[in-house]
Amino acid sequence: MTLAALRQDNRGTTALEFALTAPVFFLFIFGIIEFGLLFWTQLGLQHGTEMAARCATVNSTLCPNGNAITNYAAQQAFGLTLPTQTFTYAASACGNQVSASYAFQFMQFLNVSPIVLTAQACFPS
């Protein structure tokens, strides 16, 4: 095959273009998915703290003590399976306060350090 014929041969250009753009495209797609999971986790933490703070004030039979309140918070975290140690309870000046702190592992395949998500809710007593 001559050099002129080789320059005009365009077989395989689609495969080459795909090989150059695919990593960026897939990283972009996985980034969107990971940010969705991050926001879902933050929303679950916030919902769990709000519901547990409310339960501590309104329903003393379901949430009689700090241990029951943190268990209730973990159950109310929107489908997340979080340990009860994620949540803490304190009776503060604003009323019943529930806080959460969770280390979210962002893009595990890139070995990035975790992002700490926090949430806090206080319901007047």
Low-pLDDT residue spans: none
Overall number of structural domains:
1
* Main sheet strand line-up: 1-2-3
Summed over residues and divided by their number, the pLDDT gives a mean of: 90
Strand content: 15-25%
> How does the helix and strand content classify structurally?
alpha+beta
H/I helix tally = 3
What does the model show?
It is a single chain. With 125 residues, the chain is α+β, with helices and mostly antiparallel strands. It has one domain. The protein contains 3 helices and 3 strands; from the N terminus they run αααβββ. It has helices at residues 3-8, 13-58, 66-75, and strands spanning 87-92, 95-104, 115-123. Strands 1-2-3 form a 3-stranded antiparallel beta sheet. It is rod-shaped, with a radius of gyration of 25 Å.
Concise synopsis of the structure shown:
It contains 3 helices and 3 strands.
Secondary structure: elements and pairs:
Layout: H1 3-8, H2 13-58, H3 66-75, E1 87-92, E2 95-104, E3 115-123
Antiparallel strand pairs: 1-2, 2-3
